[in-house]
Amino acid sequence: MLRQDLTPTNISQENPTDGNSQAGQPAPTNESVRRLDIQQSLNVLEELILQSPRVPFSRRTLVDEDKLLEQLDRIRLNLPSVFQEAVQIVQHRDTILGEAEQYAQEIISAADQEAARRLNDLGIVQQAEAQVRHVQQHVQEECDALRSQTMSEIEQWQQAAQQHWEQIKQQAETDCQVLKQEADVYSIQVLQQLEQQLSEMLRVVHNGRKSIQVADPVGLEGEHHPPAVSPSGKAQVLPQSDTSRSGRSPRRKPE
User: Fold this and answer.
1) How far apart are CA 43 and CA 34, in angstroms?
2) Among residues 8, 67, 13, which one has the least CA distance to residue 36?
3) Is 104 exposed, middle or buried (0-12, 13-18, 19+ CB in 10 A)?
4) Which of the 8 DSSP states describes residue 54?
5) Cα separation of 157 and 164, whole Å?
6) What is d(CA 17, CA 171) in angstroms, rounded to the nearest whole number?
7) Quick one: pLDDT at residue 44?
8) CB neighbour class for 171 (10 Å; exposed up to 12, middle 13-18, buried from 19)
9) Model-level pTM greater than 0.70?
10) What is the full DSSP assignment across 185-223?
């Protein structure tokens, strides 16, 4: 997947006067650095998910919760700077509108002075004053409408960003819970398989002991001898003496 090549911001902060940098190249602004921080955090978050180990026989991925939450915190900390940048843009627009309004007021004032100087007729003066008031009202209405529209757009951006952040957080929590449940199920399955194997081994041992007891019940009542293993891998019962079979020493003949 192609991604934008981003340089970490801490490198530029630790080496502000790097000798390898080209002379005359402008330093990145705070806005561009913040945008790079957000983009880089998103790329790191994507790499974290893609490089995390996958759960066998499923489409799930085991993600490090601490690293995931750390990247989400970085994105959340950089979002207010983006909102601040939007507010600064609105303030800049308000400044431009204020200057335009002031310029309009100066034009209107100059027009009033020129009209008062040249037009002595009362009707013409009143008509000019009415036109001036109409222009002022029209300019004021346009300024108010533009300001209201801008504030509405900012609120929509903030709500959309907050909803997007909540969705990402909820999805991350859901994925972590699902992965934990799947890991528990996988552990239980492995333990069950191990339990079955151990039960099978115990059954084989029990059957072997039972077959040996049936084959030589008398020999087992005396001294216990460890079974010898033949080259074929089967246990063999060692022959026992008469003493061990009968449990007593043989009777001596009288002289």
Assistant:
1) 14
2) 8
3) middle
4) B
5) 10
6) 42
7) 86
8) exposed
9) no
10) HHHHHHHHHHHHHHHHHHHHHHHHHHHHHHH-TTTTTS-
Q: Where are the domains of the chain?
A: 30-178
Give the tens place of pLDDT for each residue, 71-81: 888 888 877 77
Which residue has 């009209």 as its token pair? 115
Q: Burial letters for 47-79: b for 16+ Cβ neighbours within 10 Å, e otherwise?
A: ebeeebeebeeeebeebeeeebeebbebbeebb
pLDDT of residue 75: 81
Q: Where are any strands of DSSP class E within the chain?
A: 228-229, 235-236
Q: Letter for the amino acid at 98? A: G
pLDDT above 80 for 204: yes
pLDDT given for residue 218 in this prediction: 58
- Per-residue CA distances from 182 to 7, 54, 172, 192, 193 (Å): 37, 11, 15, 15, 17
